[in-house]
């Protein structure tokens, strides 16, 4: 085991303040929400967030896919604190202040780009029974600027301190130039660069951005639906998840000192890992359905656990499987 130092993990993505509350059916009906769903906020949802805070008892969490994984990696490692650095864009507002506080409580060294044009991104988790209806308003998260934040000397020094990098595919819709700068640094210094496919629409509608970054990817994460979308867009001509993992692993790579590792989850079914000429499967421990609260954030937590092991071993083998 290697000792883990502060700022040895770097993440960059869409920071969202998760606002969680147990609500009633009338609240769901008012905003035409399904009990168990994930949507992007529309104009009709603008008042939802303030009403949620005023009407119900809420809990706040530092959220967003990348930030979630950084949080879990820190939780797994425990000490030292501030193992993970996180960059993203927020607003100069009340929710931004709460997000900074929650990130600090999670022992994340968050350095947000703060601007006044858009409010801090939020995600309302409206809970009824065992269900959660998620409504995300990206807002400021869409406003990250490479030249105004990543390029600053004091911020780039934090990038240089890191040994492992993780970015969720959602950030490909925001600042591919920022991702490329970090990915190229990782490749040139033989550090570990990890990317998540994140969602089928990333593979479909942001394919060009994804494939600009892909040659720098040392570890690729995804689930079965994302893998299927990726395979279709890349003309792999197969729906077999093992073959998809193998073909993704074999795509061109800039840093030949590291073999790419591809890890594809399938919920309760086996996880598939391709590395070199080998494709392996790993069974998932069965859990009684009555013990499952919900599966929200399960993928982010999986990645956070994997990254914590990579940090400790300083090796891209996904040893948590």
Offer a few descriptive terms.
5-stranded mixed beta sheet; 321 residues; UDP-N-acetylmuramoyl-L-alanine:D-glutamate ligase; ATP-binding; 26% strand; globular; alpha/beta; 14 strands; 12 helices; 36% helix
Terminal-residue CA separation: 17 Å
Query: What is the count of DSSP helices, taking H or I runs of 4+ residues?
Result: 12
Q: Helix share of residues?
A: 25-40%
Main sheet strand line-up: 6-5-1-9-10-11-12-13-14
Mean pLDDT: 93
Order of helices and strands: EEHEHEHEHEEEHHEHEHHEHHEEEH
State the CATH architecture: 3-Layer(aba) Sandwich
Strand content: 25-35%
Largest sheet: 9 strands, mixed
Main location: nucleus
Subcellular location: Nucleus
Function: ATP dependent phosphorylation of adenosine and other related nucleoside analogs to monophosphate derivatives.
Subunit structure: Monomer.
């Amino acid at each position: 085991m290697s000792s883990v130092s502060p700022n040895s993990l770097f993440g960059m993505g869409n920071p969202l303040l998760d606002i969680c509350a147990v609500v009633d059916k009338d609240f769901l009906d008012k905003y035409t929400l399904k009990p168990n769903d994930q949507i992007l906020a529309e104009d009709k949802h603008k008042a939802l967030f303030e009403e949620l805070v005023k009407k119900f008892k809420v809990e706040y969490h530092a959220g967003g896919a990348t930030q979630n994984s950084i949080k879990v990696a820190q939780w797994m490692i425990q000490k030292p604190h501030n193992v993970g650095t996180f960059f993203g864009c927020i607003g100069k507002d009340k929710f931004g202040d709460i997000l900074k506080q929650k990130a600090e409580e999670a022992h994340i060294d968050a350095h947000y780009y703060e601007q006044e044009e858009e409010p801090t991104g939020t995600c309302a988790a409206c809970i009824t029974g065992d269900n959660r209806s998620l409504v995300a308003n990206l807002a400021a998260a869409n406003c990250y600027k490479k030249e105004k934040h990543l390029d600053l000397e004091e911020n780039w020094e934090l990038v240089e301190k890191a040994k492992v990098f993780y970015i969720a595919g959602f950030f490909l819709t925001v600042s591919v130039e920022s991702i490329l700068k970090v990915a190229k640094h990782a490749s040139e210094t033989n550090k570990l660069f990890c990317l998540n496919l994140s969602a089928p629409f990333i593979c479909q509608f942001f394919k060009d951005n994804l494939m600009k970054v892909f040659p720098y990817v040392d570890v690729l994460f995804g689930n079965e639906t994302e893998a299927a979308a990726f395979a279709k867009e890349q003309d792999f001509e197969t729906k077999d998840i093992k073959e998809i993992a193998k073909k993704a692993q074999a795509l061109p790579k800039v840093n030949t000192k590291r073999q790419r590792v591809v890890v594809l989850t399938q919920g309760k079914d086996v996880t598939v890992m391709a590395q070199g000429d080998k494709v392996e499967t790993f069974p998932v421990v069965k859990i009684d359905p009555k013990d499952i609260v919900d599966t929200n954030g399960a993928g982010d937590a999986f990645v956070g656990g994997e990254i914590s092991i990579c940090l400790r071993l300083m090796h891209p083998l996904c040893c948590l499987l």
